[in-house]
Design brief:
The complex is a heterodimer of chains A (111) and B (112).
Chain A (H helix, E strand, L loop, with lengths): L3 E3 L2 E5 L4 E7 L6 E7 L5 E8 L4 E4 L2 E6 L4 E6 L8 E7 L8 E2 L3 E6 L1
Parallel strand pairs in A: 2-11
Antiparallel strand pairs in A: 1-3, 3-8, 4-5, 4-9, 6-7, 7-8, 9-10, 9-11
Chain B lengths: L3 E4 L2 E4 L4 E8 L5 E7 L6 E7 L2 E5 L6 E7 L2 E7 L7 E8 L6 E3 L3 E5 L1
Parallel strand pairs in B: 2-11
Antiparallel strand pairs in B: 1-3, 3-8, 4-5, 4-9, 5-6, 7-8, 9-10, 9-11
Chain lengths: 111, 112
């Protein structure tokens, strides 16, 4: 089955860029997703990329996809304290929306 | 509007109680989901409804019983739960089974 892996923790200074990495195993995933979860809250869909794209930019967010290596990254430009949260990478094996989540990367932003 | 509304936000129940979690969306989505998230863990899929029919049950114990009364509503009926069932229960919906899913804020369930 699908396996999604992420690093668990990232600490950045306010104003710097953050890069969160993710790897997945099922190459048939048609879309790949990034969700944000703040403490005590649900999941917020941040962005997603279709599997035939290499890059997607949405304001401060840039998603890069390397299909050959099954590697996905999320870059947050000009990181702010409000960006502190857990970020989940998610992939639907076989293209169906049964999302398999990575363990989540806790982003800590310090002054 | 990408809102999925879950009620209640918090629920404490005894092991002999029967309770229900509710989820509602008015985006015209035809797929709805229940996920369970234990503390410090990622969400895990429990059930998928597609066009109001149960399409995936991830081997969830029968003490959890989903129901989709119409295309906007999804319920999760709870009976004879165990303390280890304490978790954040998340509802999600998507236009169909292939498109992006939007999540509600969750119901934090504590079983005592």
């Amino acid at each position: 089955g699908e396996d999604v892996e992420q690093s668990l923790f990232l600490s950045v200074r306010e104003g710097d860029s953050s890069v969160i990495n993710c790897t997945y195993t099922d190459s048939s995933s048609t879309y790949l997703y990034w969700y944000k979860q703040e403490p005590g809250a649900g999941l917020q869909l941040l962005t997603y990329i279709f599997s035939n794209m290499d890059m997607k930019q949405d304001q401060r967010l840039t998603v890069l996809l390397n299909k050959k290596d099954k590697h996905l990254s999320l870059r947050i430009a000009d990181t702010q304290t409000g960006d502190s949260a857990i970020y989940f990478c998610a992939a639907p094996p076989g293209g169906y929306n049964k999302l398999i989540f990575g363990a989540g990367t806790r982003l800590a932003v310090h002054p | 509007d990408t809102e999925v509304t879950q009620t209640p936000k918090h629920l404490v129940m005894g092991m002999t109680n029967k309770k229900s979690l509710k989820c509602e969306q008015h985006m015209g989505h035809r797929a709805m989901y229940w996920y369970k998230q234990k503390a410090k863990k990622p969400p895990e899929l429990m059930f998928v409804y597609s066009y109001e029919k149960l399409s995936i049950n991830e081997s969830v114990p029968s003490r959890f019983s989903p129901e989709c009364p119409n295309s906007s509503l999804l319920n999760l009926h709870l009976h004879a739960l165990q303390p280890e069932d304490s978790a954040l229960y998340l509802c999600a919906s998507s236009q169909d089974r292939y498109t992006e899913a939007f999540f509600g804020q969750g119901t934090r369930l504590t079983v005592v």
